[in-house]
Amino acid sequence: MVFDALPEPSDDACVLFVCTGNICRSPYAEYSLRENLRLKHASGIRVLSAGTRAVVDRGAAEDVLALLAEHGINGADFRAQALNPDMIETADLVLTASANHRSAVVQMVPRAHSRTFTIRQFARLALVAQPATSDDDSPRTRVQELVRACAAVRGVAGPSIGSADDVEDPWGGPAAGYRRMAETLRDPLRTITTALVTVGQATTLSPSHRATPSTA
């Protein structure tokens, strides 16, 4: 019997955003976090997204592309993909748009519970978490330490607040709904960026989701 070669170990970390269709909230978060990290001159983290009921191969919603463009980010090459167990297993941190998405991730891969959070929840926890130091200086190890530290204070500091933790789905609504989505995500993503950069210099782009660098 012939086996495929195992992938080479990587020091890169992977952050995975999850929403429903993978055309509004998660691609906006994906491209925004990438850009935030790029502006920090970070390297070593792949940022991806997927949907629990993805509109596979569809581009991001036009209003999402317009909001990204306001920050000099070109999301035209984005294509939606369906969430699967391999993505979850590979991710060092899974960030979801809502508590329901978090539950869907954990139902798919139960052992991912300790590294799966809603976006807003993780941002709150990152403000108080105290990652351990490690002799291993790789971005992946540093991000894993951040995730462990956030998991340790889950329910103690910044507990989940139910549906108030969710990012509203703007799909099918007016442009104002998309802007509210972006405003809801803005500060949490900034906090997450700071946490990732502080714990270890971080970000490379996924070949399939490569954004045009911003000049803004």
Describe what you observe in this structure:
By secondary structure, this protein is an alpha/beta fold. The chain has helices at residues 25-39, 62-69, 85-90, 99-108, 119-128, 139-152, 175-199, and strands at 13-19, 45-51, 93-96, 116-118. Strands 2-1-3-4 form a four-stranded parallel β-sheet, sandwiched between helices. Strand 3, helix 4 (99-108) and strand 4 (116-118) form a beta-alpha-beta unit. It is globular, with a radius of gyration of 16 Å.
CATH class: Alpha Beta
Report the sheet with the most strands, covering strand number, pairing sense and barrel closure: 4 strands, parallel
Number of helical regions: 7
CATH homologous superfamily classification: Response regulator
Bulk shape: globular
The N- to C-terminal Cα distance equals 54 Å
Major sheet: arrangement of strands: 2-1-3-4
Could you spell the SSE succession in H and E letters?
EHEHHEHEHHH
Alpha-carbon Rg, integer: 16 Å
Mean pLDDT: 88
**Annotated CATH topology:** Rossmann fold
Percentage of residues in helical conformation:
40-55%
Q: What is the count of structural domains?
A: 1
